[in-house]
Design a protein that fits this description.
By secondary structure, this protein is of the alpha+beta class. The protein is built from 15 helices and 14 strands.
């Protein structure tokens, strides 16, 4: 049962007064990715703190207990000032409004320095004695079963919605083999695993990084966290920056554990692959399934990471996984305009199979119905051909309908393209449909794309003949 907003604020006010004496002013803060609610509480002569209402008591207890443990170990985490778990509320340090991702976008050089410090702080957290946090975590140790969950997340929520073909049995065999390799991590590289260590979960206060949202932690391979952070698509670290950051992390880790450099490098590549597949599964579910634009926009960055992994050779032992990786990298989800500008995606399709999916997250666009034109598919000699073949092209052009149709389509769409370019929009979808998605729609999509590229050379034009399985860029 959902707790009333007024009740939450009254409970937080009482907890604050019990701790500090004065009645606070309460400001509700924007929600994050979880169901927790956050508030900023402050008085005239009393401290400013963050009040938290949690939706899961076990998670609340875990966060509170782990915060106390890590604070004692010198890790930069929020201090817990007061708690009322009966009402699922607690007061913690106010770490401000800026996270590391913001620094990396707006103040790159400063952000890189803070990223190095965050990794040093991470090692301090990961190397906290297990006896101190073991009874406080609520998640089971990272295991082969969990790895298989992540891998199947990639399979069912990215590969299938993206239309990437694969041999299920062969891919599952590769998953089993890969998962076994990951769980064989050297014991010296096991410790507290943050599990969701990323720049959004690193707040910057007083010029130092502070960690939040580690209640999902468990025992596991510590390299997973470093890789999650350094290879986070949104952070957009280049190869030189990644090499610098992983060296900083390994140097700090070497101070607290006995490690073998060969094992480190091998495990780093394995963790990069695992994390990238897990992230693609998450982006696929949130983006391709739930159609949330933010996650769709993140897919190309994750596929860029997958491309680099492919080049490293770590996939050489997993042939089916390597093949689906290659197909994913070559798919339309990996393609971006080189200058970050407008991408016009043009589809041919069959109305019998429904409209093309819009993976931009923007919705809208233009759909043109080609079924009113004479259909070459009604004649035996044209049935095995498509709108890309000369006989079909001649048939359509000789009838004369198609040229006027395309001209009018261009006239309708061109003003929007001109406006999109001026306003800095990044995506426009155009579709041409007919009965089978084979003749009229294919011809129209092809001719339209070529003419649009001629008229608007600054835009990237991508074409997908959906029913033919053909994708290309003009």
């Amino acid at each position: 049962m959902e707790t009333d907003e007024k009740v939450i604020q009254e409970n937080l006010s009482q907890l604050y007064m019990k701790k500090y004496g004065g009645e606070p002013t309460i400001e509700k803060l924007p929600g994050a990715g979880s169901d927790r609610k956050y508030y900023r509480l402050h008085g005239v002569e009393t401290p400013t703190v963050i009040g938290t209402f949690g939706s899961d008591r076990k998670e609340d207890e875990c966060f509170i207990n782990l915060s106390k443990v890590f604070l004692k170990s010198g890790v930069n985490v929020p201090e817990i000032y007061a708690e009322d778990l009966e009402n699922r509320i607690y007061l913690q340090s106010d770490l401000g409004k800026l996270d590391l991702l913001s620094y990396l976008k707006d103040r790159r050089s400063e952000g890189l320095g803070l990223a190095k410090e965050a990794l040093r702080n991470l090692v301090k957290m990961q190397s906290t004695p297990e006896s101190a946090w073991k009874k406080r975590v609520i998640n089971r140790p990272f295991s082969k079963r969990m790895i298989m969950w992540d891998l199947n997340y990639f399979k069912y929520d990215f590969l299938k919605p993206a239309g990437i073909a694969f041999d299920e049995e062969k891919l599952e065999n590769d998953f089993e083999k890969f998962a076994s390799s990951v769980v064989g991590t050297d014991e010296n590289l096991m410790g507290f695993m943050y599990r969701d260590f990323q720049s959004r979960n690193v707040m910057i206060k007083d010029g130092q990084p502070w960690f939040i949202d580690y209640q999902g932690g468990r025992r596991g391979p510590v390299l997973y966290d470093a890789v999650s952070f350094i290879w986070q698509a949104k952070a957009n670290f280049n190869n030189e920056e990644r090499n610098i950051l992983i060296d900083v992390y390994i140097e700090q880790l070497s101070k607290v554990t006995r490690i073998n450099s060969f094992l480190i490098n091998h495990d780093v590549n394995m963790m990069i692959l695992l994390r990238t597949l897990q992230v693609l599964g998450a982006y696929g579910f949130r983006g391709l399934v739930e159609k949330k634009a933010h996650f769709i926009e993140s897919i190309p960055g994750a596929l860029s990471n997958l491309s680099a992994i492919l080049e490293s050779g770590v996939l050489s032992s997993y042939p089916e996984l390597r093949e689906v990786a290659e197909m994913s990298i070559g798919s339309r989800f990996a393609q971006k305009s080189e200058n970050g500008g407008l991408i016009i995606k043009v589809f041919s399709f069959s109305y019998k199979k429904g409209y093309p999916e819009d993976y931009s997250g923007n919705g809208g666009g233009f759909m043109f119905d080609c079924r009113g034109m004479h259909n070459p598919g009604r004649y035996e000699e044209y049935k095995p051909l498509t709108g890309l073949d000369a006989p079909v092209i001649s048939f359509l052009e000789e009838k004369g309908e198609v040229k006027d149709f395309i001209s009018k389509a261009i006239g309708i769409v061109s003003p929007s393209i001109d406006r999109y370019l001026k306003r800095g929009f990044t995506s426009l979808q155009v579709g041409f449909g007919c009965t089978g998605g084979r003749h009229r729609s294919v011809y129209c999509a092809e001719r339209f794309s070529k003419e649009i590229k001629r008229l608007f050379p600054e835009a990237a034009v991508e074409i997908c003949h959906r029913e033919q399985g053909i994708e290309k860029r003009f």
